[in-house]
Design a protein that fits this description.
The complex is a heterodimer of chains A (440) and B (178).
Chain A lengths: L14 E5 L21 E4 L4 E2 L8 H14 L3 E3 L18 H6 L4 E10 L2 E10 L4 E2 L3 E7 L3 H17 L7 E9 L6 E8 L6 E2 L7 E6 L5 E6 L6 E6 L5 E4 L6 E7 L5 E8 L2 E8 L5 E3 L7 E6 L5 E6 L6 E6 L6 E2 L6 E7 L5 E8 L2 E8 L6 E2 L5 E7 L5 E7 L5 E7 L6 E3 L5 E9 L2
Parallel strand pairs in A: 2-4, 2-5, 3-5
Antiparallel strand pairs in A: 1-8, 5-6, 6-7, 6-8, 9-10, 9-32, 10-11, 12-13, 13-14, 14-15, 16-17, 17-18, 18-19, 20-21, 21-22, 22-23, 24-25, 25-26, 26-27, 28-29, 29-30, 30-31
Helix pairs in contact in A: 1-3
Chain B lengths: L1 H5 L32 H5 L16 H9 L1 E3 L9 H16 L3 E8 L6 H21 L7 E7 L10 H7 L1 E9 L2
Helix pairs in contact in B: 4-5
Classes of the chains: A mainly beta (440), B alpha+beta (178).
Chain lengths: 440, 178
């Protein structure tokens, strides 16, 4: 049997260096997301200054990626380059704050880029235009030219993090299922892309149906369900080497819904047998499998708490699907969802404070969040079919699958405040996203 | 591939006459193992088997078209309807009379639900149909369950009439045992 893999080249590590500040650090530029931002903060990011001829082709491209990242959060609004009065022609020249104030810019990002061979260096500084201060040290990233978008994402993460006080999420990837063909005879391929939909790579060839991938917390491995043997089986793939193996066989059972433990040493998954679906846990080192639930009902859609001590999952033991929490070693489960409708696919936030879920009620599907005790339920979306939420690494944004009535599925993201609903560009229909960590 | 080579492999892509089950009329597209996602079958290429004449009561074509190879379920339910039980009783009579065939019992759900839940639900439906056949004397050793959840519909429309035929358990004749 021929195997088809796209091997993912490991990017050369990006080296980060701090640049001495131009002015002493003062009251930082601040944007409090938790209080609900109504008015996006205006920012400017002029083309990065090319410091040699090789850098000239990247100067504007870097600025465009950074501008798109920040604008896409809904928290920032770009003051376009044609409105700028001042011109940045040297990375180390003083900033004429009054020219930026005149066009209502609050946050100014300046940068420079130089290229030698396939090596690239990108530098940036962030300024608070209103107080006339630099915010934090300048930073320098060094890597290869084919990782130029990653360097723009690194700058975006640093800017986002300095202004909001939250971790960033731009230099991260998303694993998903890329779909093609008719709905009756659908082709599904495992794929990975940058969080903004760029650099899509296909990881399976589409001959076998694949569903529900999950990327590990370090981003190097993927668990998914494959029908390549005729019945659903679990597969573990290494994204660096393309190596792949089938794991977690339980004789006579359909196995699916695999999720890594936070430390990556094992997984939890569902096995359906005899009309009953239970959760099992498996060690990846020993292969040992332990049954976690034994209720005569469906238990699936598991997700670990970030500390690995608890598992949230869905079960219909009460008659309809609801969300439960139990110790990660099994034991008594406590129901936390009590609203109207059905609750599925609970996913624990990387910050530990919230659980995202799919809810269906009165013929509509919603992505929502609730606290881990089930309180403060908030529905963020509503459509014909929304499902499979996954968290951005900073716990502020959720990506999910949306299928319009009679339409194809595609990926969307929404802020946990319910604002800034956006479609993520993909090469075709797409489903089942799993958002990976910030890359080192 | 010994088993496969002598098996009566009927790929889903073969165009067959619509089965006579009124709720499945015109929707025939599966009902035979497997063609989907099974690389062994794909690698083997398209194996052509003789379905026989549906008027011959011992033929696979008769099983699929006259008896009906599938039963249907209401939303989120695994309960067999009176019509479904009658179909399964007729299936069991045929299977008991033709013990050389093994079976894959496929479980399916409609699109109105989440993916993992629908795999679990599909397994429940396939199991309900399989347990009924066991109760009618069909050996469990001849049967194997596969749940496709919501991902192998026979009809694609965002309407009740399509969901009604997609919520199904299909008794797929997999091959000759022994």
């Amino acid at each position: 049997m021929t195997r088809f893999f796209v091997f993912l080249t490991a990017l050369a590590a990006l080296f980060v260096t701090s640049i001495a500040p131009m002015a002493t650090q003062a009251q930082p530029l601040r944007l409090q997301i938790t209080e609900g931002v109504i008015e996006p903060m205006p920012f400017a990011v002029p083309a990065f200054v090319p410091e040699n001829s090789g850098g000239s082709q990247y100067g504007d491209a870097l600025a465009r990626v950074i501008a798109a990242n920040l604008s896409n959060t809904g928290l920032f609004r770009e003051v376009p380059q044609q409105a700028h009065i001042a011109r940045i022609t040297s990375f180390d020249a003083g900033v004429s704050y009054s020219d930026w104030r005149a066009v209502n810019v609050q946050a100014l990002i300046t940068g420079a880029v130089s290229v030698q061979g396939n090596r690239m260096t990108v530098k940036f500084r962030l300024f608070d235009v209103l107080t006339g201060q630099q915010v934090g040290d300048g930073l320098q990233f060094a890597g290869t030219t084919d990782s130029w978008r990653r360097m723009a994402h690194k700058v975006s993460d640093a800017v986002y993090s300095r202004i909001t006080g939250e971790g960033g999420y731009f230099d991260s990837r998303v694993v998903f299922i890329s779909e093609s063909g008719s709905r009756i005879n659908r082709v599904r391929r495992l794929a990975i892309m940058d969080q903004d939909g760029e650099n899509v790579q296909f990881l399976t060839d589409g001959r076998a149906m694949v569903i529900g991938p999950r990327i590990s917390h370090t981003g190097e491995r993927i668990l998914y369900t494959t029908y390549e043997t005729g019945t659903p089986r679990l597969a573990l793939m290494n994204t660096q080497t393309g190596q792949r193996q089938l794991i977690g066989d339980i004789p006579g059972a359909q196995v699916f819904s695999p999720r890594f433990t936070p430390d990556g040493s094992g997984l939890v998954f569902s096995a359906a047998r005899g009309g009953n679906t239970d959760l099992y846990r498996m060690s990846l080192s020993s292969g040992q499998i332990q049954q976690l639930t034994s209720s005569p009902s469906i238990a699936t859609g598991p997700s670990f708490s970030p500390d690995g001590r608890m598992i949230t999952f869905e079960s219909d033991r009460s008659g309809t699907s609801q969300i439960y929490i139990m110790p990660a070693t099994g034991g008594e489960a406590r129901r936390i969802s009590f609203g109207q409708g059905r609750y599925n696919t609970p996913v624990w936030s990387p910050r530990g404070d919230l659980i995202a879920f799919t809810k269906s009620h009165a013929g509509r599907f919603h992505i929502g969040v609730m606290r881990t005790d089930g309180s403060e339920e908030r529905l963020l979306t509503a459509s014909f079919l929304d499902e499979s939420p996954t968290w951005a690494p900073n716990g502020r944004v959720i990506m999910f699958t949306r299928e319009a009535q009679g339409g194809d599925p595609s990926l969307f993201s929404v802020d946990i405040t319910g604002r800034n609903l956006r479609r993520i560009p993909t090469p075709g229909p797409a489903s089942d996203p799993s958002w990976g960590p910030l890359r080192p | 591939m010994n088993l496969t080579s002598k098996a009566l492999l009927l790929l889903a892509g073969l165009a067959l006459a619509a089965c006579n089950n009124p709720r499945g009329a015109g929707t025939f597209g599966g009902g035979v193992a497997d063609g989907f996602g099974n690389n062994d079958f794909v690698d083997a290429g398209i194996s052509t088997g003789n379905l026989g004449d549906p008027n011959d009561p011992r033929s696979v074509a008769h099983f699929q078209q006259r008896i009906g190879d599938r039963v249907f379920f209401t939303t989120d339910s695994t309960a067999l309807s009176a019509e479904g039980r009658a179909t399964l009783e007729a299936q069991a009579r045929w299977l008991n009379a033709n013990p050389q065939f093994s079976i894959i019992m496929e479980g399916h759900a409609d699109e109105r639900g989440t993916r993992d839940y629908n795999i679990a639900l599909g397994e429940r439906r396939a199991n309900a149909a399989m347990q009924f056949l066991i109760g009618q004397g069909v050996s469990a050793n001849r049967m194997r369950v596969v749940s496709y959840g919501k991902d192998r519909p026979v009809e694609a429309c965002p309407e009740q009439r399509c969901w009604d035929v997609n919520r199904r358990a299909v008794t797929a004749i997999a091959g000759v045992t022994g």
